[in-house]
Amino acid sequence: MPGNTIGLLFQITTWGESHGPATGAVIDGCPPGIELSETDIQADLDRRRPGTLPSASTRSETDRVQILSGVFEGKTTGTPISLLIPNRDARSDAYDDLRNLFRPGHGDFTYQAKYGIRDHRGGGRASGRETAGRVAAGAVARKVIARAGITVEAWTRELGGVAIRRFLPGAAQASPLRCPDPEAEQEMAARLEAARAAGDTIGGIVEILVEGCPPGLGDPVFGKIDADFASALMGLGTVKGVEIGAGFAAARMSGSACNDPIGPAGFQTNHAGGILAGITSGAPIVIRAACKPIASIACPQETIDVHGRPAVVTVGGRHDVSVIPRIIPVCEAMVAIVLADHLMRQKAIRS
Amino acid sequence: MPGNTIGLLFQITTWGESHGPATGAVIDGCPPGIELSETDIQADLDRRRPGTLPSASTRSETDRVQILSGVFEGKTTGTPISLLIPNRDARSDAYDDLRNLFRPGHGDFTYQAKYGIRDHRGGGRASGRETAGRVAAGAVARKVIARAGITVEAWTRELGGVAIRRFLPGAAQASPLRCPDPEAEQEMAARLEAARAAGDTIGGIVEILVEGCPPGLGDPVFGKIDADFASALMGLGTVKGVEIGAGFAAARMSGSACNDPIGPAGFQTNHAGGILAGITSGAPIVIRAACKPIASIACPQETIDVHGRPAVVTVGGRHDVSVIPRIIPVCEAMVAIVLADHLMRQKAIRS
Amino acid sequence: MPGNTIGLLFQITTWGESHGPATGAVIDGCPPGIELSETDIQADLDRRRPGTLPSASTRSETDRVQILSGVFEGKTTGTPISLLIPNRDARSDAYDDLRNLFRPGHGDFTYQAKYGIRDHRGGGRASGRETAGRVAAGAVARKVIARAGITVEAWTRELGGVAIRRFLPGAAQASPLRCPDPEAEQEMAARLEAARAAGDTIGGIVEILVEGCPPGLGDPVFGKIDADFASALMGLGTVKGVEIGAGFAAARMSGSACNDPIGPAGFQTNHAGGILAGITSGAPIVIRAACKPIASIACPQETIDVHGRPAVVTVGGRHDVSVIPRIIPVCEAMVAIVLADHLMRQKAIRS
Amino acid sequence: MPGNTIGLLFQITTWGESHGPATGAVIDGCPPGIELSETDIQADLDRRRPGTLPSASTRSETDRVQILSGVFEGKTTGTPISLLIPNRDARSDAYDDLRNLFRPGHGDFTYQAKYGIRDHRGGGRASGRETAGRVAAGAVARKVIARAGITVEAWTRELGGVAIRRFLPGAAQASPLRCPDPEAEQEMAARLEAARAAGDTIGGIVEILVEGCPPGLGDPVFGKIDADFASALMGLGTVKGVEIGAGFAAARMSGSACNDPIGPAGFQTNHAGGILAGITSGAPIVIRAACKPIASIACPQETIDVHGRPAVVTVGGRHDVSVIPRIIPVCEAMVAIVLADHLMRQKAIRS
After folding, report:
1. Contacts of residue D29 in chain A, CB cutoff 8 Å?
2. Rg of chain A taking only CA atoms, in angstroms
């Protein structure tokens, strides 16, 4: 797997650049007999769409997914599902000035170093647009895990330094910032607005909850399911940290405080975040991903050009102020993909 | 890769249980012509050995590695290198009481749920002993990356809530706790002693630094090198969080503060931790891993037995008070293995 | 790799059904900087097109490939290359009678047994149309290996029981049946015509020659390059046998006759077919693939329906009389793909 | 998978050289709860042992397998099974003359070309001894498939040009040459004796029969089960050709003769050899592997040394006259390993 494929049995390959004709994904290994339509997938894609929020880009990404294979008369057949999402409204000219410059915080420099060539338009392969294919594939993964009663939901836990103080069930879904704490959300929105006004961007933390997951998913020792979650999320360009359960806070706990006592009704606390020794315990799975601020800022920045000469770059174009909340369905998709894969792996050994 | 193998080109498979006859690793894909002896590997294994520290188990693990294949007249041949480390001094009887109990914080419950059978002795496959094979393989990986001028070094950044305040070059290597700040180390030692006295354990944070890494290692989009680091470290049972560069702190930064300006001499700051868009930038790579407190504590804990009945478990035996500092060479090994793999992957496309 | 992906470093995933909207392939791992256009690929696709031969189907397959990603300003960028070939002229109605019947010699029965569902139209995923994606990907593989001076060429060695008696250099390319022996070709054409008149089909043998391959490609022991050639060719539905060098004839030779003596100028004979212990020797690589007769015949055949009841099936539609010569560019593509992969694998360990 | 690993879910990695301290295999992915002892494995290893036949080497290979992990109280636990077979009676001195010579028909030249270094003693990694690990792993695979009612049996179909004329059930197992036709066996034995007297060797054909295999195993399109069989068998250094069902003869048949009619009781003929479109049909699976004569012959042969200078080599040592019948349990092992893998893959999607 040279790098654009994830999964052992439920396997996703994405392809596509920001300003090419299309992006897409191939899902190989999807079990047969699952009802699947473009509408099912579109719903998740729409959640990734820029809205009318202060955080949003004004690029109009009305992504329309096409299913090109693997579905017959409304059901998956077991053969590869090819998903295609045409790129629209890509104004490549806006990137002409960037052809020979490396934008700080972006992959421009590293792609050039790696390949000796790069599609500079809109970040090319490193663009957030690549995640459209992930979300589309994740919608299929959700269907696979739903059959086992597993759900995945994510929300904004922190944005621009503002953390949620409480969790109001159902609030995140209805909220523009996918925030389960309405008061915190107001502060977050203010931070977003301030950053936009300053031509700047802000980061945040996404929290992901998996419910209904049976115990036993995950493989020792390099196929631990938390290792796969970490890889799937750190595989998003924006993510700089991942933690499970108590996470970094566990490093400051004593064993007697951190261990989750077990009773006949299950685990009495959940510092483990639903995973022990890399295998799900049946408790809810809790994952957090730290997202850096978007690198494209309107302020002038010091950089170099492809010849190593100093330069100043100002990134124009239409950019979001934060990856949150648009990254949320992407995080859900990645977690669902990992779960679908491990669900099938477990069936292989225990059914 | 069902779960006990890591890497695409430089590939490690480990095997072995805590109280079986031996543990080991097979390295497949090691380039030919590298000088390699058991002594080379032994040095790293010895760093993993319990010492005379307050943190240490009294189990005598004088691991002696044997090279069974892949080396001829002192040099690697390109064929699989089989490493075997006999288990010694394994007192299985001490675990008889635990046969039917699930120790909180351990993989007992999840292994039973996954497989319907488990080797309860000393944690079986989920034991820290499995990491001996990783360290042995990591010693070979170090040799591979050393040819490209890459070094990996890790140290204790935090232990029992005590964080380092300064970094004294060279201090960590000479220090019993692998701590680069002698004053902080004294406080850490006190925390360890207090925990031991209470029959308790403590966690901490390991920091890993990679120097000399060329730009261009890492593959878009699911083979990002930071995703692979995250997976390799989260694949240690003790690790509950991983971050790169500014990590979780990046979530609280603005884009203008977080972006690393680029000058003719290179990156002027390193919030990215040496990785942009999943590809190394040539700047030093900085990774941190949060380690939970060891689950085996001497205090009585609530649990259930294999029949679901409530029980109280007290874990006897000889256990460490913290995985730190013994986990440090393991973290180094995992990072070196990922680097060796990506170094070879890059050679495949650009040489 | 659940089944629709081949290769470790130069990796091809194909997708698509005979009567879906399109078929295609994703190439992951292609080195950057290779000039590539749709025209380059189209040339190979055209060689797979039905011609005006007695062997040809009358379905009009003017396959037009589109490059959707991975190429920028005429050069590969190192990111996945997505190739799409729209399906045209697919008359699904012709297959309505076959919805509930299993055609003998086809995958109808086995797909139904495997998945419990199948796209019966035109053979679905098991159709020869799937090979369009392989040929398109193979065209890219050829470009990769051409940089190392490696060429792949295949021809008809046997058709309908008529074997070539001599090899006229250059004749195969110019010949409608890709036959290097003009006299034999006349007999082959007569067999084809007789079979068509009888509503029947015939099989044959393709021979593939690789020239310019450096020694050293192939990995012990399960990654032997001849094992990969065998897998790649047996992975064509039509192929029932594969042999390398002397092949089955080697089973009837003595060691003293079969061993190829080595002189300062190289191997003096080539019974090994250019491969020793699974690794290329530098001698020309010779492979043969036995193709069964096409299963779709106009004669009535005994079968059962999906309920297990006896039935008689007569396969209408427009079908070829033999997979030869259309399978020839497909065989070349598969061999080129394996070579590209191993060329890159060798670079990873020796550069 | 750099080359020494086979399988996706039931995964085998072998390691070891002919004259190193040991050879072995790691089985990853074996389902838990299967009764397994060293005795189970030893039985298959003993069938690979040189006997008192005219074909046999006089090297005393009393291979004794040790299970080092993955089995607890007599049952598999689901964790990796490490198998170790110490090398005994390895007279390396006998190979001193060969250090700088390339034996015709052997991998000496290609290993040197690939790696620039090689363990010349006894063929190193390319030795037939490597197959001991395969046979040991195959014994475990047999246990896995036996639970599904699948059996694998192989026999000598042809030796030194003598083919069997009839099949006497049960005769092969009792026969020294694993030949199901006692008359043919006498002729085969005479050919062996003649070859031995001449210091020469002979080849032959092994036939493998799989019974009890359910329909539905195998994955389109590159994971076809016949492609995997072909790869697994061609991955034996001695095998130069593989065919399924009618095999090469299918190339000379018409479609009306080759297609297997289907009736309510199943397939009425079996030219397909139990596989259609790469998926098992439920009919018996029939595979043949063509084995070349052993390359080590006592006659002088032309060759070159590592400096490219002409030389004459005479291979001393103790060598078999044919790989048959010792290769037979190896062929069975490889087929069983592929079946175990696909059985698990099918469970993942349909259970």
Report:
1. 349
2. 21
